[in-house]
Amino acid sequence: MSRSLVLGGVLTGLVLMMAALSFVWTPFDHTAMNIPTKLQAPGAEHWLGSDHFGRDILSMIMVGARTSIAVALVAVGIGMGIGVPLGLAAAAKRGSWLDEVIMRANDLVFAFPSLVIAILITAILGAGAINAILAIGIFNIPVFARVTRGAALSLWQRDFILAARVAGKGRARISVEHILPNVANLLIVQGTIQFSLGILAEAGLSYVGLGAQPPVPSWGRMLADAQTMVSLAPHLALVPGSAIIVTVLGLNLLGDGLRDWLDPKLQRGRT
Fold first, then answer.
1. By residue range, what is the domain housing residue 70?
2. Residue 157 in 3-state DSSP?
3. Tens digit of pLDDT for each residue in 57-80?
4. Contacts for 59 with CB less than 8 Å, ≥ 6 apart
5. Which of 47, 93, 141, 215 would you label with 222, given CA atoms 20 to 30 Å apart?
6. 53: exposed, middle or buried (C-beta count within 10 Å: 0-12, 13-18, 19+)?
7. CATH number at residue 105
8. Alpha carbon distance 68, 59 (integer Å)
9. Are 229 and 42 in contact (CB under 8 A)?
10. pLDDT tens across 113-136, in order?
11. Is residue 154 domain-resident?
12. Longest Cα separation, the chain
């Protein structure tokens, strides 16, 4: 087992545990304001300090973790749930009109970054976590479609697929029973990578006011609120920034470790 997998698993596990713990316990109510204690540096009372409203930063970080994780997880689920079937269908009908329509639609979505998509959705539906999920999820669809199609195309020429076709199985059945299980490892790794990118995207959308809205804490909005007070209280920016860095680093290391662990070619190279 690689060090990347272990370290990534530990960092990711700590973030997940912190988010889970926030459902049952936080040092303070994350919405409680206490003006006399505003802008306190980290200390015995507030372990990570307090913000400009006197709110406990550790409590906000803990609750913000579950916000970021929920948004990124659902967005990845949307991308995978729609993108994988589209990729399988495109590979099964390679060169057909269906393949062409799916891939050109993917190109169209890729032409608009998730932030632009979020702005368009927000202009119609308004800002909020649900709309951030939709924006990130829509952007994830072509990613999973392309990865699935590319991996599936190399499998359609394999002997076991030809044997399944000779046995009378249709393309849809072959895609589900034979292609999908053989690309699952790649999709797991890609899902981990997109999860980390989803955390970053959620933070970016919240930073510009398009993500989760007050009083729901968000790491990105905490950074936005801190930008005018960095010289007075640097911990306001350092704490949420560090949380984002640790989470994304852990997920990227986990993805690299899973790729090394699940790829038979890399395993043979190490033996």
1. 3-12+54-270
2. coil
3. 999 999 999 999 999 999 999 999
4. 22, 26, 27, 28, 29, 30
5. 141
6. middle
7. 1.10.3720.10
8. 14
9. no
10. 777 887 788 778 888 899 889 989
11. yes
12. 77
